[in-house]
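haha ok so turns out i had the wrong file open the whole time. this is the CORRECT one, sorry everyone. sequence first:
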Amino acid sequence: MLKALLRRKPKPAAPIDTATLPDGQRVYAIGDIHGRRDLLDQLLDKIVMDDRMRGPADTHIVFLGDLMDRGPDSAGVIDRAIELSETLGDNVHFLMGNHEEVYLSAADGDEKLVRFFCKIGGRETILSYDISPQEYNELSMEELTERLTTLLPRRHLDFVRGFRDRIVMGDYAFVHAGIRPGKSIEEQRPKDLRWIREDFIMDDTPHDKLIVHGHTITDDVEECSNRIGIDTGAYMSGTLTALCLEGRERWYLKTGG
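then structure:
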């Protein structure tokens, strides 16, 4: 019995304890913004200060999706994101969330999807463009669907259409919602990467990468053996969170505190 115990192999270290980035690389991953331009500006200021303090690096910023809906200034968030893409080029990355998917579908003129869009926070997105609450309330769903085809700027739509479904850096995979357990990162479907919840959240088996995600709101950062969730409900909590990574080190920056 004792010999058998001595021969037992040690349990492998959890991915969260071993994940690393390539030498010289630094990453700031930003959780779901949901129309809070004010919080985004605050967090970006913190990121700039933190990055400068830590010295030179190949620094990347990853937005985990759901830039829009629910909060008051989705148009402003997209404007700031476009500015960053023009300034940082290949060092800033934007992931497609489920809210971006619905935003783009609503813009295509499908009345059923416009109705769904409005139910999940799209009303606030629409009101961040050139339309008053009174005008919005007076429009029928058919009229609103028609209005969206000209209300949403082509520049915004084209920008959001360019969002990616996943980013892999070192031992980390950045996605919006999560992944389908049992499938490699390369095998994941866009539907799961943007929408999955319980099947991913409740699974504790190791993945081929440590998954960094948003989508599912928690009061604070959720660190598990196989994933890190950083959607801290910014639109209602006032706390927008960034996961910061360099080598094996990780730390967090937040607004509201």
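Residues 1-11 have pLDDT under 50 and may be disordered.
again sry for the mixup
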